[in-house]
Amino acid sequence: MPEEQEQPSPERPGMTAADYEEFKRRILELTGLDLSSYKQRQMQRRINSLMESLKVPTYRQYFQLLQADPVRYEEFLKRITINVSEFFRNPERFADLEQKYLPQLLAKRRPLKVWSAGCSTGPEPYSLAILLLDLAPGLPHRVLATDIDKAVLEKAKAGVYQASELKNVSPARLARYFDQVGEAYRVKDEVKAIVDIRRHNLLTDPFDRNFDLILCRNVVIYFTEDAKHLLYQKFYQALAPGGFFLVGGTEPILRYREYGYEAIGPTFYRRPETTAAGGR
Ligand SMILES: C[S@@+](CC[C@H](N)C(=O)[O-])C[C@H]1O[C@@H](n2cnc3c(N)ncnc32)[C@H](O)[C@@H]1O
Fold this sequence. Notes:
The chain is of the alpha/beta class. It has helices at residues 17-31, 40-54, 59-68, 70-80, 91-108, 123-135, 150-158, 171-177, 189-192, 225-238, 256-259, and strands spanning 113-117, 142-147, 160-161, 178-181, 184-187, 195-199, 211-216, 239-247, 262-265, 268-270.
């Protein structure tokens, strides 16, 4: 999605740096969402352009609006977090999972416990579920699918997608795992049954543990370095020894060794089976 045009830096009354700080503090209190963990310039630009479109002149008034109007609040959340996704996004990475990493995991442990963190409308966790059903059917695998945005989770639960979101799904899988509903396709109950969809804020909520595989792709792009640093430590702790971690193509973890990971393939990392001192 293209970035918005640069707004003139507003220092009007009610729109000063101090007013923005106050807005961030109140949003944190209201929602648990810490805007300080997102890159400041991009975030402020998004919020300012949203306010402009609503003709709200000050951060204080915008906060009051968000507090009073759930529709505006969801719109705010949608705007600051970008929800684009599709099935088998970056097909080469899903091929790596299907041909290499999932078979390795399945050779050691069944069923598998997997997490799609920042799952948006659901294509990523459902793609993982389809791979698990293909590779090791009939087992109670669990794919945890989490996102901060309630609206996308509703769509994930409905599991209905347009053909454009399914362009990387083979005809055989489309026939096997989806029902056609008019122009759209609905994920079958067999796939839904292993996907557990929940609201979760990666920046503030506690992490579950013992995952064999975690995917967190195209989520951290707007996070600050500090927020990412904390997140990579928490993902490490959430992985089972020998578990794999896949990040987005443009988000390699440069200092992966510091957290204890091994780099094992393009944007794939692993928590070693036996953890060296310092890695935990
Ligand atoms: C571009 S989508 C990525 C979807 C999927 N992982 C993919 O790569 O196709 C980014 C998602 O991250 C979510 N997100 C942003 N900040 C978050 C946070 N603090 N906690 C959880 N999810 C967050 C957004 O709501 C959005 O749905």
